[in-house]
Amino acid sequence: MTLHEVMDRLGPSIFAGLLDVDGVLRYANQAALRAIGSAPEQVLGQRFDTTPWWQGCEVSRQRLQQALASALRGETSRFDIRVVTSSGDTLSMDFSLLPLYDLEGRVVWLIPSARDVSEREQAQHQLLLTRHAVEQANDALLQIGPDGAFHDANAAACRLLGIERAELLRLRVPDIAPQVDEAQWPQRWRELCECGSLRFETRLRHHEGYEIPVDVSASLVTSGDTSFGHVCIDDLRERRAAERRIRQLLLFDELTGLPNRQLLSERLGATLQAGAQTAVLVLELDRFKRINDGLGLHIGDAALREVAQRIVAGVRSVDLVARRGGDEFVIVLVGTSAEALLTAQALLDGIAQPMTIEGQEIHLTCSIGIAAAPADGDSAETLLRRANAALHQARLLGRNQISVYAGTPQDDDPQRLALETALRQALRDEQLELHYQPQVDLVQGRIVGVEALLRWQHPTMGHIAPDRFIPIAEETGLIVAIGNWVLRRAIEQAAAWQRAGLPPQRMAANLSARQLVQPDLARRIEGLLAASGLDPRLFGVEVTESILINNFDQAVQHLQALRALGVEVSLDDFGTGYSSLSYLRRLPVDVVKIDRSLVPDVTAPAEDVSITRAIITMAHQLQMKVLAEGVESEGQAALLAANQCDQMQGYWFSAALPAAAVEGMLRDGRQIDTALFGRRSRQRTLLLVDDEENVLAALRRLLRAEGWLVLSATSAEQALQLMARHEIDVILSDQRMPGMTGVELLRRAKQLYPETIRLVLSGYTELQSITDAINEGAIYKFLAKPWDDAELRAHLREAFTLKEMADHNRRLDREVQTANRDLAELNQRLQTLLSAQREQNQREVGSREAAQELLDAVPVPVLGVDDEGLLVFANAPAQALCGLGGGFLGGAATEHLPPNLQRALDGESILFTLAGRRWWAMSRLLIGNARGRLLVLLPQAGASK
After folding, report:
1. Phi/psi at 355 (nearest 5 deg)?
2. Are the C-beta atoms of 753 and 719 separated by less than 8 Å?
3. pLDDT at 798 > cutoff 50
4. Which residues contact 731 (CB under 8 A, 6 or more apart)?
5. H-type alpha helices, 566-647
6. CA atoms of 373 and 363, how far apart (whole Å)
7. Is 255 helix (H, G, I), strand (E, B) or coil?
8. d(CA 324, CA 815)
9. Rounded to an integer, what distance in angstroms lies between the CA atom of residue 438 and that of residue 71?
10. Is the peptide bond before 374 cis (omega within 30 degrees of 0)?
């Protein structure tokens, strides 16, 4: 076998050849030729360093040239080269160049050979990368032998333990793991061998002595007879710190560091499970919002931190203090209610001490509600809820107070939650309806208005009284949706009556506190009125004193806006709340409604009548009407009419009825007999009062010919009842009567019916009491028994004449007062409308000026023409282009604009020439408040039809 044959059989990864001493290639084996895709004749006879094997790497070619020179000197060369194959792959090869000698020792041939070492080099490279990855890993990596000695460690392991690599490799596992000693290590190694891998958390000892929490993952690695443990260690210090931070955020208040709502619930629940007596104090700062609003949130936060510190300092170390949110804190202490009261008082005093924050002296107070277990509940939720109820009571007491839960009927009302759910369904399913209670004029006797009252007829629970579900609606916020529903239905019903041509009457609807603070209240009512077509003068709203006082300024603004629309405003339940004259004067109110508790009867004490009369007089002096609620008898109605009350409503005339029933009343013209209010024919009426029937009979016979209506009573009580049913002109009373003397009766009559003329006819002269009564004005004259018939008739005729003159004067005065009130009301409404119109004009002027500035900035001509063809607007480019001087506004567009623009004003887009340029002219119809067309001129290059 020749040398060539041997070389051809060396294998595909071994290249071999033969060079002469001049470096010319004389032979190349098949593996070498296949690598470069060449035939022998293409490369043989060429210098070896110029063949394709060396074209891909200049460095390898230069080293070959050096090796050729060395080989001629008898030196062997070996080095790595890069060879690019015909497929484009680069091979890494171990290259050798050997000299071949003749018998005389001269170099006669050179033998090049190369072996492909690409896989080895790639493996070495991969091994190097792996080593770098291990070295640069963030986790600590260790190799541990069966004896526990460390065979290798990366830089992270050295940093973790604070030790150099060389020193670490001299240690064993027990040296750094406090939980593993020399005796335990063999067992740990056996566990690793049995399981193949282990993962656990432990602690390692740092070089400086402290311990580090770590997560350890160990895997058994076996290669032949060699086994070692590959250990990955994760430092848990940051994770544990993050867990502590997360726990802090989840369970503690970030601002104060106190336990939050969740941790409070957990710890309170655990405390209650222990069964010990426990008290829960809910503490809320009074009016804390003013600190945030007035001084800033940063001052408010500092104040909350100071309060938290004072609370913690004011309780025992075993007590729990938590911040539940906002300005509310909760204290849980194991002890009796008496101990809780002492603690609460100490907290009240401590928080009331002034605090200085950033130079600001701040004074705070708090309210505290207390509930105790097991008396007030045995669960955390129940105790907190009842402590909240006590806190609410403390606020109602005036704040800076302590209240202990005493229980309320609704707290244990099993139907309350069911009612809340049913109320939501009722609103959705249209179970609610409105009834309407008529309001009657006490001068004309006719219906002048109705009040819309909410009713609920549940399918299974039947009729549910408003005082049962209205508080639930207010508490849950459903009152807003219900109130809006009431407004819409009431206005729609009033509009329907208006369209039906029924006598005009005002529809009144009640507003809740939540509705009154809604910013768009007036706008929403205005929209409802406009949509229904109802005259705003036929609609009114009723508000109570309490909701006005709570949001006074905002309420005044809303009510003024409603009055500007023409809506009547009534102040409901007057006399039961603040009833402040200073507030009343500032309120935009048309009608004052006297609460039913102040509506007197004929048998009521005189002071009650005086209070009612004072309210009526005060309201009239403020140019307001007066309506009395809850009138339940004819006597009440007559007494109110006698004291010049304007209107009334109540069961005596009609209860609240469905719309159809009220419509029937309106169609039938139902009203009160005006005789009750003094609009009867003016028959003189005399009331005789004497406990002796024979005296009354004699007087009736004497006065029969006078043509008077003579009424008689044998007691003071009968007399008062007759006064309530009839308009009495003159009263003639005996002095000595059982139960009440004549002077006492006439004093009462003066208080109830001051316009009557009152005389005493008696045979007994009690000089002092009669003199006092005359001086007080309770008695007009004293007449003695037995009487002279002619003198008695003369005195009575004189009394009737005096009464008729006084009645005439009072009628004139009342007509003047009514006219003045109406005039003042009209004047006030006119002023309100004028003020609103001025504001609207100012807004429109501002809007027009802004629009003018905006359109002047538009770089193309823009003109405005109203629906009468008058030029009302032109921006600066339009004035310059069309040559419009001053005074063009208001002129006819045909006079000021080029004639060829007329077609554009008719809505047609046209192309025309003006000022040497071609323009597109187009107009758009304006809709809304502005009527006419907007004309825009665009240069031809930038215009399109």
Report:
1. -125, 145
2. no
3. yes
4. 686, 687, 689, 719, 746, 749, 756, 757, 758, 759
5. 581-586, 606-621, 634-642
6. 33
7. coil
8. 63
9. 131
10. yes
Nearest by Cα to 436 from 512, 366, 503, 493 = 493
For 108, the token pair is 């006669």
The answer to whether 688 and 696 have CB atoms below 8 angstroms apart is: yes
Q: Which residues of 345-373 are buried (b: 16+ CB within 10 A; e: fewer)?
A: eebbeebeeebebeeeebebebbbbbbbb
Pairwise CA distance, residues 674 & 677, whole Å: 5
Picking from 672, 616, 681, 676, the residue whose alpha carbon sits closest to that of residue 649 is: 672
How far, in Å, are 216, 221, 427 from residue 196 at the CA level? 14, 8, 69
Above 90 in pLDDT, residue 184? Answer: no
CA dist 660 to 67, 100, 392, 503, Å?
A: 123, 132, 43, 15
Task: List helix spans (H) across 364-465.
Answer: 380-396, 415-428
| Rounded-to-integer distance, Cα 867 and Cα 106, Å | 122
User: Per the structure block, which two tokens stand in for 270?
Assistant: 């655990």
pLDDT tier at 944 (50, 70, 90 boundaries)? very low
Residues 148 and 185: beta-carbon distance below 8 Å: yes
Residues 598 and 608: their CA atoms lie apart, in Å, by 7
Most confident range, picked from 35-39, 173-177, 250-254, 533-537? 533-537
Per residue in 452-481, pLDDT tens? 999 998 888 888 888 888 888 887 788 888
Strand 591-594 and strand 226-235: the pairing is unpaired
Spatial separation of the C-alpha atoms in residues 822 and 799, rounded to whole Å: 34
Exposure pattern of 377-398 as b/e (b: 16+ CB <10 Å)?
beebebbbbbbbbbbbbbeeee
Higher pLDDT, 282 or 175: 282
Instruction: Say if CB 626 and CB 594 are below 8 A apart.
Output: yes
Strands annotated E in 190-252: 197-205, 211-223, 226-235
- What is the average pLDDT value for the chain, to the nearest integer? 83
Q: Which helix (H) or strand (E) holds 83?
A: strand 77-84
